[in-house]
Amino acid sequence: MGYPDDALAADEELLLHRHPHWKMLVLPALTFIVATAVAGFAAGLAQARLDGTARTVVSVIVLVAWLALVGWRCVVPLISWKSTHFIVTDRRVLIRQGVLTHSGIDIPLSRISNVQFRHGLLDRMMRTGTLVISSAADDPLEFDDIPDVQRVHSLLYHQVFDAMQLGDRPGGEHLDHGTDGGDGEGRQPRRGWRR
User: Fold this and answer.
1) Mean pLDDT of the chain
2) CA distance 151 to 58
3) At residue 4, does pLDDT exceed 90?
4) What are 21-36's pLDDT values in tens digits?
5) CB of 131 closer than 8 Å to CB of 148
6) Residues 195/20/27/61 CA torsion (nearest 10 deg)
7) Which tens digit of pLDDT belongs to each residue from 83-103?
């Protein structure tokens, strides 16, 4: 069992697990390509124009500069992207971030009062956007770069609606709503989606 399954309660069902949208990695990828091309050109120039110790020193300086730039502008954002998790279960929304220093937010579905999303033209083309979750007592929380934000919004809205319906019944009995809005006969439990 891997993350996030090992972070869930025994009877908690994972419905959605996402990292931020891949657009966060476009600038690091371009930085890697440009830095590698410049470092290769500089190393080739040093090999052609310099002799002996000077060639070695310049080559080492170019390599160290390339490693520093790639580590800072490419590897760190990749690790940050990979260690950021947006998770929806049948009970709560979890956000986890960080490698060395971890931070996290858990929002019980029963406390969510409003779910919104927004995206501009470019975000719509890339199927991403910002998800806004409001609870009754707290300020709204915004989560940027959620992939398939409209589908995540819909899933979360339906889960919150089901949690509200469950909470309205005496003794916590589950209301069984039909898929066609009828009397609810024959409906299977809602399953989440993931890639």
Assistant:
1) 84
2) 52
3) no
4) 999 999 999 999 999 9
5) no
6) -100
7) 999 999 999 999 999 988 989
The residue assigned the tokens 């919104």 is: 116
d(CA 17, CA 1): 14
| Largest interatomic CA distance in the chain | 86
State the amino acid at position 31 in one-letter form.
Answer: T
- Two tokens at 192? 């989440």
Q: How far apart are the first and last CA of the chain?
A: 17
Using CB atoms within 10 Å of the CB of residue 157, give its burial: 0 to 12 exposed, 13 to 18 middle, 19+ buried.
middle
- Return the structure tokens found at 124: 């719509």
Cis peptide before 140 (omega within 30 of 0): no
